[in-house]
Amino acid sequence: MGIPIHLSALEAGFHMPAEWAPHERCWMAWPGPQALWGDGLPATQQGFANVANAVAAFEPVSMLTPPDWLDSASNLCGDNVDVVPWDLDDSWTRDIGPNFLVNDYGELAASVFHFNAWGGKYKEFRKDAALGHRLVESMGVRAFSSPIYMEGGGINVDGEGTVLTSEQCILNDNRNPGLTKAEAEHELCHALGAEKVVWVVGDPLDTETDGHVDGLACFIRPGVVLVSHDPDPTTELHKILQENVRALELATDARGRKLELVYLEETEQFYNPGDLFCVSYINFYIANDAVIIPSYGIPHDEKARITIQSCFPDRAVVQVDVNDIAPGGGGIHCITQQQPHV
């Protein structure tokens, strides 16, 4: 009898664990292209190093680094960060890297989406598009290829069968023209080993990621979602975020639970429609025993810290300034990718 060929992670018995599950390490990538970061590149590199060093206090970090920048990365990153030579176009590991999976037998695998630079927004992306399969191959673990164009920042999972995503991203014609919601649910569940997709609308004014969910909402434990919220009903931000809140209020997860919502208040202080600057306190990384969260150097930082600490009472909450990362269109979650412990 031959060995059955499994076409998807779901069919092979793999699933993506929740981000709060134990990690083996965190993967990051070093920013190098001067054309993308301009004169701010040295400050951006320091910002990435600050995030890497914060994470490395709680779990190992591997920094994929273009050969020309090995000395820079090694000098700025601490001893707990492993600098790995790697050719790249850009540095958003969450979006270009593999989505790591596990099964009940303690095996590691990964699901890899197709990548087209967030819907064709940049010309140079071939190296980044190849990263997922190349990295998994170098690790010697099994890879599952998803037929859809998608990024890791566009999904969030609870580890119990539920995927959170936005309509604006995966159903966008710049990624998957003609894809229906039912087809998207099928592909996401098969890629991530899940049973149900919960949808939010997105952020129609986010023209860079097209409403990545990791700037809008995330599971913080099974059945509980932390969601961005602006309490001032007179603001444009409130109207946008409230659409996502309404969708989550009506949703149930894969276990049939009505979702409990925790509100994380965002600020309009930096809100500038069309600007790439990533303003999202929810764009954080859950590390082993810690949560690494963004700081913008404004009074609202403390309010966000208190809310996030209340969500993770048993973890340290570490704030890192992201003012030299956010102009690129992303935050802490966008530049990190967890590899689960098996």
What does this structure look like?
The structure is a single chain. The protein is globular and about 50 Å long. The chain has ten helices and 16 strands. The protein has 342 residues and is an alpha/beta fold. The protein has one domain (23-336): L-arginine/glycine Amidinotransferase, Chain A (5-stranded Propeller), CATH 3.75.10.10. The relative contact order is 0.17. 27% of the residues lie in helices and 25% in strands. It starts with 22 loop residues before the first strand and ends with a strand. The strands form five sheets. The chain has a four-stranded mixed sheet with strand order 3-2-1-16, covered by helices on one side. Strands 4-5-6 form a three-stranded mixed sheet, with helices on both faces. The protein has a three-stranded mixed sheet with strand order 7-8-9. The longest helix is centred in the first third of the chain and has 16 residues, at 41-56. Helix 3 links the parallel strand 2 and strand 3 (81-85).
List the helices and strands and how they pair.
Layout: E1 23-29, H1 34-37, H2 41-56, E2 61-65, H3 70-76, E3 81-85, H4 93-96, E4 99-102, E5 108-114, H5 117-120, H6 126-139, E6 142-149, E7 155-157, E8 162-166, H7 167-170, H8 181-192, E9 196-200, E10 217-221, E11 224-229, H9 236-249, E12 260-265, E13 285-287, E14 290-295, H10 300-311, E15 316-321, E16 337-340
Parallel strand pairs: 1-2, 2-3, 5-6, 8-9, 11-12, 14-15
Antiparallel strand pairs: 1-16, 4-5, 7-8, 10-11, 13-14
